[in-house]
Specification:
Blueprint (H helix, E strand, L loop, with lengths): L8 H13 L4 H11 L4 H4 L2 H10 L22
Helix pairs in contact: 1-2, 1-4
């Protein structure tokens, strides 16, 4: 069976990143998904998925690191 799925460039990049994160081609990754059946998102998400999604993001120039600053310290007697 042949199935054609139309994806945006961003979606295709994310799909490729997910497959690459598992060391598979896109076709192998989709076949693996089809064979495993539906699962909840909590069961299938890993840190590798998060990293792949961040790397595939079209908004890589946005800084999500919180601003760091030194907190004031009060005098303490021990």
């Amino acid at each position: 069976m042949t199935v054609i799925i139309r994806l945006s460039d961003e979606q295709a990049t994310a799909l490729e990143a997910n497959a690459t994160a598992e060391g598979l081609t896109v076709e192998q990754w989709i076949q693996k998904l089809a064979e495993s059946g539906p699962k909840s998102a909590r069961e299938t998400r890993t840190g590798a998925d998060l990293i792949a999604a961040l790397q595939a993001s079209p908004y890589r120039d946005i800084v999500i690191e919180p601003e760091r600053y030194r907190l004031p310290v009060r005098g303490v007697s021990l």
